[in-house]
Design a protein that fits this description.
It contains 6 helices and 8 strands, in the order H-E-E-H-H-E-E-E-H-E-H-E-E-H. With 173 residues, it is an alpha+beta fold.
C-alpha cells in the first residue's frame, strides 16, 4: 500500500512513466492512474482472504476433514458459494463438486477469484444434516471440503452425514 499511496504520486509528480507488464498477459500499463487502480484491485482481491487462507493452509490436507466436521458442529453452520444454485468446481476427468467451508472467511477468498458472480451463503447445521446432505447424496453429488484453490478433501454426502452424527453423539451434542 505504501507503493500505491506514496510512490505512485511521487513518480507522477516527477513525470516518470510506469512500465509494468502483468504476468497474466494483460497489456502494458503506461498510465499511473491505471496502474494505481489495477494494483488496488489486485491487492483488494486477496486482502480479505489472505489471513483466512493462511489459517486454512496450516491445517494439513489429511486433517481437514476432521477439522471441518468439528468446526461446523461448533459454529452450527456450513458455508457455500451460490449463484442460482450452489457453485460447483468442474474437473476434467471427474464429476463436478460443491466446495464447502466451515468459515465465511474461507469462502470469501474465492468469491473474488473463479466465482466472482457468486454470493456467500450459509446453511445452519440442522438443515445441512436433514435436507441438503440427503439431497446431495440422492443426486450423487460430492463435496470439496475446505477447498483451498489447489486441493480439498473429497467427500460424499453420506460420509459427511455419518461423521457429523458420530461426532455429535461422541461429544454429547
Amino acid at each position: 500500500n505504501e507503493f500505491i499511496d506514496e510512490w505512485i504520486p511521487d513518480m507522477k509528480n516527477d513525470n516518470l512513466k510506469p512500465s509494468i507488464f502483468w504476468i497474466n498477459g494483460d497489456s502494458l500499463v503506461s498510465d499511473f492512474n491505471k496502474l494505481k487502480n489495477d494494483l488496488e484491485y489486485e491487492i483488494g482481491k486477496y486482502s480479505i482472504g489472505d489471513s483466512a487462507l493462511e489459517e486454512l493452509s496450516k491445517v494439513a490436507l489429511s486433517d481437514r476433514y476432521e477439522y471441518f466436521i468439528e468446526k461446523i458442529v461448533e459454529s452450527k453452520e456450513a458455508w457455500f458459494l451460490y449463484n442460482n444454485g450452489f457453485a460447483m468446481i468442474d474437473y476434467e476427468d471427474e464429476n463436478s463438486r460443491i466446495p464447502v467451508w466451515n468459515k465465511r472467511e474461507y469462502a470469501e477468498f474465492f468469491i473474488n477469484d473463479k466465482f466472482e458472480e457468486c454470493v456467500i451463503k450459509s446453511i445452519n447445521l440442522d438443515e445441512f444434516i436433514e435436507y441438503l446432505l440427503p439431497d446431495l447424496d440422492k443426486n450423487n453429488i460430492y463435496l470439496d471440503v475446505l477447498y483451498d484453490g489447489e486441493g480439498a478433501v473429497v467427500a460424499g454426502a453420506t460420509d459427511i452425514l455419518y461423521s457429523l452424527k458420530n461426532y455429535m453423539e461422541n461429544n454429547d451434542l
